[in-house]
Amino acid sequence: MGVYVNLTIVPSRIAPEAWQEAYEESLALLRGYSGEMMGIQFEQINSTKRRVYSRRIEHHIDDPKQRHWHVVGDFASKETGESFILYSDLEHYRDRGSHSKSEGEINDIIVNIIEEKGGCRDVFSDKTQGYPYHIPLLAVAMLVEDRFPKYAHASGDIDIHQAKQAQAFAKTVLKRKIALPLAVDASRLFQRLQAHYQGKEALAHFDRLFRGDSSSSFEILYKLSDRSSFSQNFLDDLRYYKSPTQLGAIDLSMKWLNATRDLRTLCELACLNDDGPNFDPVQFADALASTWISIEESLRGLMNPFRKPKGATDTVATQFGSMLFDMGGLKGRNMRFYMDEKQVLEILAGLFPGQAKQIEQIFTTETETIRKNLANSQKGVETLVKRSEADPEIGDGSSFRVLKSAENLSQNQRLLLEGMAYALSLTRAKFQEEDPGAFQEAAERMHEQIVRISHHQGITLTEDAWKWIDRENDLELLRFVLMLVLIKNDEQKFWNMRKGLLENRNLCQAVLEMTHDQKLLARIAKKIEATN
C-alpha cells in the first residue's frame, strides 16, 4: 500500500526554455509553502558522513546539467515519505527509459499512456504516504500539466478536493490560477477521451485515468455517456464475479444504486440479462442487504466519524482501515441511496415470484442483523470518537515528533513519557553496572560518538536537532543523548518517541529529569508490579 503523487511528461514535445521556466516556478511553489519543505543533505563530520533533514532543497545550483530540487517531507509536521526530485535540465528526462520501445507520434499524452506507445517519462511517481507535503507536490505536478496540457499528466492518489487545495495554494504563491488536473476534472477528461475513443472503450479508459472517489466516477459516467454503453460496461465488470456476495460485486451494486437510484434495472442486469452473470436471485438478495439499501440514515450515520474529510489525503493507515471495514461487513457505509424494505421486497417479488419467500427471509434477516450490529456498536463508536478528539497521541508515539515540551501533556502523552523515563532509568543503570566508566568521556568525544552511532543506527535528524546537539555542553544531557542513540530497538513507538526527544532539547531535558524523580519511578514500578 502507499499514497502516491505522479507526474509524467513527453519531453520530446516540450521546449527546454519552457521547461526551465516551469522548474523555476515549481521551486517558488515549494519555497512558498508555509510548512517549510524538507530536503536531505549530507555533512562530513570527521570520518562520518551525516544524513540531515534540511531546509536546503535545491542542489548543484551552479551546474546546469545537475541542478535539481529534492524534497522528502516538511518541517511543520516532521513527517517524511519518499524522495521527490525535479531537474531543471529537460535532457535529464530525455535520457531516461520510456514506457515502450517505440515512441511513435505523440499528440496527446493520455493516448500514449493508455496505449503504451512510448515517449512518456516519469518525472516522479513516489509515495507521500498522505503526509502534508502531498499537497505542495500535487501543486507542482498540476503546475507542470497546466504549462504543458497535452504533454504532461498529473495523477496519483488524489481527488478533486485535494486538487482544489493545491490550486488555492499555488495561487497564493504564483499570483495566478493553474488548472485542475485532467485526472480529477471528469467532464474535461471524458471529452478528451472521446476525441480518440468511443463507447465502451472510452468508458474503460476513463475508469483507468480518473482519480478520486470511484462512486463519483460511476455517477459522472452515468450522466455523460449513452445508456447502452454504460449498461454494457457495467455488465462486463459484473461478469468478473462468480457470486453476488463477493466484495467487488457488492461494491458495483452500490455504485449502480448511488448513481442511478434504479433497483429494478440492477436486478435485471445481475440476474436476468443474457449478457450478465445470471446471479441466483436469493444470493443476490443477500448481497443487496449488505449494501445497506434499507438501513436507516440514523444508523448509517454511526460510520460518519470514519469517513475521510473532503480534501484529506489518504494514508497507509486509512487505506488499510478501509480494507478492514470492507472485510468486516461494513462496506455499506458508502451507500447513499435508501429504499424502504417493503419497496425493495416488492420489486424483488415482482421479478422473482417463485423465490419470493426465500428472498424475503434472507433479505429481512440480513438487514435486521446489520441494524442490531450497528446499534450495539453505537456506544463504542461514541467513546472512540471522544477519545480520539481529546488526545492527540494514539499510542504509537507519533505526536512526539512535533511536541515542544513536557508541559500541558495529554493523558496518553504523559503515560508514554513516564513509561519511557522509567525504562531509560533501568537502561542507564544496566549500562553503568556493565561498565562503571560508561558515558564518562569528555564532551568532544561524546559528540563524536553521537554522530557515529546515529549514522550506524540509521537515525536521521533535522538540522534543528543537530544544531542543539552539536552545541550542547551539559555533560549529563549529552550522556542521555548518547544513551538514546545507543539503544537498539526497532519498535515504531520507541523510534517515534526517541525522534521526538532528539528533535527538541526541552523535551529531552524533561525526560532526563523524570529519570531522576524517585517518587515517579517508584509509582511506575508499583503499577508494573501490580499488573504482573
Classify the helix fraction into a percent range.
40-55%
- Radius of gyration, rounded? 29 Å
**Biggest sheet layout:** 6 strands, mixed
Shape: flat
Assembly context of the chains: single chain
The poorly predicted ranges are: 97-103, 315-328
Number of strands: 9
Give the termini distance in whole angstroms.
38 Å
Mean pLDDT, rounded to whole units? 88
Number of helices: 24
Class by helix and strand content? alpha+beta
Strand content: 5-15%
Keywords:
single chain, 532 residues, alpha+beta, three-stranded antiparallel beta sheet, 24 helices, flat
Could you give the topology of this structure?
Blueprint: E1 4-9, H1 16-31, E2 37-45, E3 48-54, E4 58-59, E5 68-74, E6 80-87, H2 91-94, H3 109-115, E7 121-127, H4 134-147, E8 152-156, H5 160-174, H6 186-194, H7 199-209, H8 214-224, H9 227-238, H10 247-260, H11 263-271, H12 281-290, H13 297-300, H14 316-327, H15 341-351, H16 356-376, H17 378-390, H18 411-434, H19 443-457, E9 461-462, H20 463-471, H21 475-486, H22 492-503, H23 505-514, H24 518-531
Parallel strand pairs: 3-9
Antiparallel strand pairs: 1-7, 1-8, 2-3, 2-5, 4-5, 5-6
What does this structure look like?
α1 runs antiparallel to α4, α12 (281-290) packs parallel to α16 (356-376) and α19 packs parallel to α21. The protein has helices spanning 16-31, 91-94, 109-115, 134-147, 160-174, 186-194, 199-209, 214-224, 227-238, 247-260, 263-271, 281-290, 297-300, 316-327, 341-351, 356-376, 378-390, 411-434, 443-457, 463-471, 475-486, 492-503, 505-514, 518-531; strands at residues 4-9, 37-45, 48-54, 58-59, 68-74, 80-87, 121-127, 152-156, 461-462. The strands form two sheets. Strands 2, 3, 4, 5, 6 and 9 form a six-stranded mixed β-sheet that branches. The model is unreliable at 97-103 and 315-328 (pLDDT under 50). A hairpin with a 5-residue loop joins β5 and β6 (80-87). Helix content is 54%, strand content 10%. It starts with a strand and ends with a helix. The chain has 532 residues and is an alpha+beta fold. It has 24 helices and nine strands.
